[in-house]
Amino acid sequence: MYQIRIHGRGGQGVVTAAELIAIAAFADGKQAQAFPSFGVERTGAPIESFARIDDKPIRIREHVYEPDVLIVQDPSLLNTVDIAKGAGKNTLIIINTTKNKNELKLNLPEKNIYTVDATKIALEIIGKNIVNTVILGAFARATKLVSLDGLKKAITQKFTGKGKDIVNKNIEAVVKAYNS
């Protein structure tokens, strides 16, 4: 079983990112679960959400304490939250940042760190600083846990009610992050 923890701030679509991972995994024929962890936090407060992916049914129902993958949507959290808590020597981390790996000073092997300027891609294609879908393109490329096609299906399913333009822009942004 692969366990994923997503860090971001309230209002940044952290919960939606976990849901999209689960939907994409289902589209790829895998088992998945997604759930948030927050209480009375307000917009802008640090929050986490979680996803799990496996080939067999997932019965565990607790937070992700030892993640296989970390996703950091907001780079300012690197200075305020211990995002690497529970991370092991094989944990992969995907960070939305303009910095390169060695500038980040994380207590993780550099070979496990993937950076993507999801903010730039989001502003360029979507027109808003909404990086939750964008960073999933980098997640799919780095981990191979979900396919690009699975992500496209997940975005289409989740955002159809928001209109075709929103769906298409999000898919375009995911593809750009995947290829970056």
User: Can you name the CATH architecture?
Assistant: 3-Layer(aba) Sandwich
User: Rg to the nearest angstrom?
Assistant: 15 Å
**Largest beta-sheet details:** 6 strands, mixed
Number of domains: 1
Oligomeric status: single chain
Strand order of the largest sheet: 2-3-1-4-5-6
Beta-strand residue percentage: 15-25%
From the spread of the alpha carbons, the general shape counts as globular
Q: CATH homologous superfamily?
A: Pyruvate-ferredoxin oxidoreductase, PFOR, domain III
CATH class descriptor name: Alpha Beta
**What is the CATH topology assignment?**
Pyruvate-ferredoxin Oxidoreductase, domain 3
Mean pLDDT: 93
Helical content (DSSP H or I, runs of 4+): 25-40%
Continuous helix count: 6
Summarize the structure.
The protein is of the alpha/beta class and 180 residues long. It contains 6 helices and 6 strands, in the order E-H-E-E-E-E-H-E-H-H-H-H. It has one domain (2-179): Pyruvate-ferredoxin Oxidoreductase, domain 3 (3-Layer(aba) Sandwich), CATH 3.40.920.
